[in-house]
Every structure is written in structure tokens, then in C-alpha cells.
Amino acid sequence: MDVEVLKKNNEPLMHRSYFEAKIVFEGKTPSRPELMKDLCHKLSSKENMTIIRKINTDYGSERALLNGYVYDDETVMNKLETKFVKLRHLAKAEQKAEKEKFKAAKQAAAAAAAPAKGKKK
Fold first, then answer.
1. Nearest to 18 by CA among 26, 30, 10
2. Confidence (pTM)
3. In 1-121, which ranges are continuous DSSP H helix?
4. Hey, CA dihedral for 11, 7, 67, 2, is it positive or negative?
5. Does the pLDDT of residue 74 top 80, yes or no?
6. Selection from 19, 23, 64, 24 nearest residue 44 by Cα
């Protein structure tokens, strides 16, 4: 897999850098974790601070355009990025565990709120 960074813009107010990259691969489109290794090596960034927002491929071609962000601070990344975008960057087993944890927390909150609604004065 060949990675080429096409554009990189610094966004100092948001404590991040925007990037666009092109990858050339063989066979099926690589998964996000596979892309992260090569991309972070090319961008000289940490994997936990890099977010791939979009992967664009043309049907049948073996190249793709990526765009995303490299954050300077993890707290800023957690504030700006949505949960589903961060979930995309986890392995399948980790994604499933996070979804189950979120579902259990949602059910617990609904159960705690249900008795309060049923009481009348």
C-alpha cells in the first residue's frame, strides 16, 4: 500500500491539522486500522490522535482519497469528534463492546427515569 499526503493545513484555533491523502492498494479497500498505521507513519503522528473522516474510492479502482484530522490534544479531540466517528477507528470486537456498554447505560438511564414519571401527587 502506497500513501501520499496531498495537502496538510494547520488549524491552530482548533488544535488540529487537516490532511488529504491518496492511497494506492491492491485488492479490497484496506480497513481504517490498516490505513492508520501507514498514514501515521507518513504524517509522523500518533494513531490515537489521528481521525480519518472519509475514504472515497471509485468503483473498481485500486486507489482512494482520504481526509481527516491530526489532533494536538486528546481532550480537544474528544470534544470535537462524535462518538460514531471514534467508534469507526476501533477493532470490530472493541466496537461491539463499546456499543453494548452504551446500550446498557442508555437502558439504565431509561429505567431510572421510568419510576419518576409514574408517580403522581
1. 10
2. 0.72
3. 32-43, 74-80, 83-88, 92-118
4. negative
5. yes
6. 19
Distance of alpha carbon 48 from its chain centroid, rounded? 9
* pLDDT per residue as tens digits for the range 7-63: 999 999 999 999 999 999 998 888 888 888 888 888 888 888 899 999 999 888 899
Q: 83 is written with which cell numbers?
A: 462518538
Q: Kindly state whether residue 2 falls inside one of the protein's structural domains.
A: yes
Range of the domain at 100: 83-114
Task: Find out whether 4 and 22 touch, Cβ atoms under 8 Å.
Answer: yes
Q: Are residues 45 and 94 in the same domain?
A: no
Three-point CA angle 32, 67, 48, nearest 5°: 50
| pLDDT value of position 21 | 93
